[in-house]
Please model this.
Amino acid sequence: MRASDLKAAVNTQALSIHDHRRELEANRYVYAVLSRRSSGISIGVNLNPDKICNFDCIYCQVDRTSPGKHKKVELPILEDELKEILLKAKSGALYENPPFAGVPEPLRQVKDIAFSGDGEPTTFPHFKKAVEIAIAAKKEAGLDSLKIVVITNATMLHRPGVRQALSLLDAHNGEIWAKLDAGTEDYYRTVDATRIPLKRVLDNILDAARLRPVVIQSLFMRVHGFPPEAGEITAYCDRLREITMKGGKIGLVQIYTVARRPAREYVAPLSDRELDSIAEQVEKIPLTTARFYSNYEI
Ligand code: SF4
Model:
């Protein structure tokens, strides 16, 4: 495959903040995606098959017009699915059939297990047990060094069970990717549509980041045609700066815009230039950024 085709293959199966393309349709909880952020295969674990989330982000890709197929997470089934997919990826069987048969050789690597699904994974009451299963499954597959990523809106990181799970992940190559889409309460409520105060998100990110470096994931977009105001981006940078000044370690800030056409027609991507401008302001804090541009134009 030519380089341009390879790029297209990655982009068309791109993973955004919470990616919801599901492969291996027979599975209930475990799926695989070709991920542009990790340039390889990401094994996703969906702990919210009921599609319930404590946020209602206006850019969310989850189709909540129909109910989730499964209401509960049955951990023994999740465990079987995870073990099977890891073994298939390791043996190469994963690449024998569509949709992964066309994946070019350099991308045929499992890069991570990601807790990322149709809602906030840490709201699952047995989150710690799910983490233990993931750790055991990667070990059993001989993929001990595989990264485990928790893609979270940070609202539940204060829960004792979640804190214990994160400590466990610290010892097993875990990473926290925490969502922060705004710098002000007003804009946060506009884009993430939740009753949970921004302060809780910020406090939880700070507490987590004091214990290990965290990755911040931020998605900016046009809402009713308007990009975030300059003051909003200044406030967002101020929040990031405050976290670092209070002893939080931010390893990376991933700056996204809308990757695919969202359900809400008033949400549209930023231009590359607009996204670059936000990233440049974050880099002045200084923090390291990764930029993820849109794949489509309005
Ligand atoms: S937190 Fe994630 S799953 Fe929940 S609404 Fe936002 S994007 Fe969707």
Observations:
- Helices lie at 3-12, 75-91, 127-140, 160-170, 185-192, 198-211, 230-245, 272-283.
- The CA atoms of residues 69 and 177 lie 27 Å apart.
- The two ends are 29 Å apart (CA to CA).
